[in-house]
């Protein structure tokens, strides 16, 4: 039973603290099986009771590095995280658990008002000079950009009922405030969970529009990857790839972004339907 004097939010002796896991993957696997269970908890913003799902390791509750219970908004997300834990071998490799990483970020970071405000601001900042709104002066590359990026810009224009400006270089005109304001209104209304994935995709790709299209279900991870790496892939196809040589290369960059985007796509799909961000 919990030790005497433990209060709300205090870790019990038999809870599992994720903060003990080493990022380099040298932590030994200490559990036999991961599971999920349905629990009731207080919504820290509204104070009302809500039903959520939690991860267990050999029946023990799990806590994040910030000492919060690892509870998830859907059974499917909890099961996905349990599968990531069950897939570990003799050592635990945190970098092979992207859904878990996103969930921990949502719980420990995006739940903080200052971090949430910063993430929303960053999405607006990236949108103003969005990657897919700039076109190369090289005709062959510009044709590819129009083919891949053009439909995404058209989708955004229809969704937000305002023009998406395109230009030939990164010194061009920023996006209109009407577009930025519409996007900021939308992302301000989404949950911490969805905002976590939107923020990560925007940071990884340099495109808020790719992130929004992925989050709404308009595109999948593979399409997002193609759009985000269009210019790099064009250069690699034309001049050759730089393979990994101890410090990274085109193959490492491609693999890392592929993993991140696929994880964020899955994370969005594992969340309950969000009325404030329709597909």
Q: How many runs of DSSP E, i.e. beta strands? A: 7
How many helix segments? 10
The average pLDDT score comes to 89
How far the N terminus sits from the C terminus, by CA atoms, comes to 46 Å
* Sheet of most strands: 5 strands, mixed
Strand-residue proportion: 5-15%
SSE sequence, one letter per element: EEEEEEHEHHHHHHHHH
Structural class based on helices, strands and sheet pairing: alpha+beta
Would you mind describing this structure in some detail?
The protein is an alpha+beta fold. It is 49% helix and 11% strand. It has ten helices and seven strands. The chain has helices at residues 75-86, 98-110, 113-128, 139-160, 177-189, 192-205, 208-216, 221-228, 230-239, 250-270, and strands spanning 16-17, 27-28, 34-42, 49-57, 60-63, 71-72, 91-92. The strands form two sheets. Strands 1, 3, 4, 5 and 6 form a five-stranded mixed sheet that branches. The chain has a two-stranded antiparallel ribbon with strand order 2-7. The longest helix is centred in the middle third of the chain and has 22 residues, at 139-160. The model is unreliable at 1-8 (pLDDT under 50).
């Amino acid at each position: 039973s919990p030790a005497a004097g433990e209060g709300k939010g205090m870790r019990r002796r038999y809870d599992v603290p994720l903060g003990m896991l080493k990022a380099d993957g040298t932590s030994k696997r200490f559990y036999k099986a991961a599971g999920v269970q349905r629990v009731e908890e207080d919504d820290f913003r509204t104070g009302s009771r809500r039903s959520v799902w939690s991860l267990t390791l050999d029946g023990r509750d799990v806590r994040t590095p910030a000492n919060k219970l690892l509870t998830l908004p859907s059974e499917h997300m909890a099961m996905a995280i349990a599968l990531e834990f069950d897939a570990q071998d003799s050592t635990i490799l945190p970098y092979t658990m992207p859904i878990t990483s996103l969930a921990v970020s949502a719980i420990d970071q995006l739940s903080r008002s200052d971090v949430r405000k910063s993430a929303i601001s960053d999405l607006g900042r990236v949108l103003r000079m969005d990657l897919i709104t700039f076109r190369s002066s090289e005709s062959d590359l510009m044709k590819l950009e129009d083919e891949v990026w053009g439909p995404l810009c058209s989708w955004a224009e229809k969704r937000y009922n305002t023009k998406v400006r395109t230009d030939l270089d990164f010194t061009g005109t920023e996006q209109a405030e009407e577009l930025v304001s519409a996007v900021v209104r939308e992302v301000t209304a989404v949950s911490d969970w969805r905002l976590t994935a939107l923020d990560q995709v925007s940071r990884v790709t340099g495109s808020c529009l790719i992130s929004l299209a992925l989050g709404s279900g308009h595109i999948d991870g593979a399409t997002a990857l193609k759009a985000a790496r269009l210019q790099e892939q064009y250069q690699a196809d034309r001049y050759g790839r730089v393979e990994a040589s101890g410090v990274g290369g085109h193959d490492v960059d491609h693999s890392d972004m592929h993993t991140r985007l696929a994880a964020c796509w899955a994370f969005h799909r594992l969340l309950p339907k969000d009325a404030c961000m329709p597909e």
